[in-house]
Amino acid sequence: MSEREEGAPRFRRGLVVGKFSPLHLGHLALIRAARAACASLLVLSYCKPELPGCLAERRARWLARTCPDVDICVLDETGVGAYARDKGLVPRPMPTNDATDAEHQAYLAWLLVEVLDERPDAFFANEAYAQPTARVLSEACTRRGGVAHTVHARSPDPGRRQLPVSASQIRAQSLAATRWLPDAVRADYPLRVGLIGAESSGKTTLAAALARHFGTPWVPEYGRELWEAKGGTLAFEDYARIAAVQVAREEAVRDAALVFCDTTPLTTIFYCRDAHDRADPALIDAAARPYALLVLCEDDFAFEQDGTRRGADFSRRQQAWYRAELAARSLPWISATGALEARVAQVARALAACGASPLPACADAGAIGPAG
């Protein structure tokens, strides 16, 4: 538009594209800025592979709840193929999430112009690819329409300086980053809290109590189940299996917004190295699994021997190892001490302080570790 009334949208049709996995406040600020500048706005999302907790149906619901005045199109590869075949086109493979910018730009141009019959006037993104993507879209629109068509690049917050958050930070279970989740997303997006600690430090009891307190699931420890099933003797290969099953159990409850895990693969790697002085590469990878918060259950009460424990000296060595690993890996953690009610309150305050739970924030949130 060369002439427009004061305050009128500059562009006829705008475009925002993203994985939105998960949708966060930075995405919403971009979408709202684009909507204000356009008479209509298309928000397009595709992702290959889809990321845990962020399937297409869920992303569509998040966008619909938070952006009611835009056109939303969330597609998977099957859906794009069906659209293409209906138009007599040969479907193209959807680029993977780690494909190059050029691959995504070529696919986006085909999808928009050939499949969806869209010719946007402006492309909105805060990343460096905004300008080159707009050029590719301009060329595709011009070829399809036979007349020159310019897609303008716009970056309302270049480099995300005003809202310094990324979906990858949230996917890494950064507890501090969860404050950037809108309420519609927070209710759906899974945050994992892992409990670690020496033998007889109350992990299982605390996990169950936290689940009751928050009305959310908890994931029991598979390693002890397997240990009991095998008569108290585990082979080297059992430890990687324990970690794999534990992770699978956690993923099985991904529909919960908050999940408490009785143990983590970090615990499994300790037992494996203690027994065999080495660890399977798959177990090492699993031990790097992110958690929004790790809770180190302190051994600040009398050791209870139930006939299966290794003894107080072993527990002290185990606890020292956890502390060293938490420091070395810069993991987000708090220390849970005292009676059960006190421990539940300490975890609740830590979550509330970072906006990760519906409870009010509290100043004395506990000793949150380096990355907390």
Write up what this structure looks like.
The chain has helices spanning 25-37, 56-66, 77-86, 101-115, 130-145, 167-171, 183-186, 203-214, 222-229, 236-252, 265-276, 281-286, 312-329, 340-353, and strands spanning 11-17, 38-45, 71-74, 122-124, 152-154, 191-197, 218-219, 258-261, 293-297, 333-336. It is of the alpha/beta class and 372 residues long. The strands form two sheets. It has a five-stranded parallel sheet with strand order 3-2-1-4-5, with helices on both faces. Strands 7-8-6-9-10 form a five-stranded parallel sheet. α4 (101-115) packs parallel to α5 (130-145), α8 (203-214) crosses α14 (340-353) and α10 packs antiparallel against α11. Residues 1-5 and 358-372 have low confidence and may be disordered.
Helix proportion of residues, in percent? 40-55%
| Class inferred from helices and paired strands | alpha/beta
Strand content: 5-15%
Distance between the termini: 48 Å
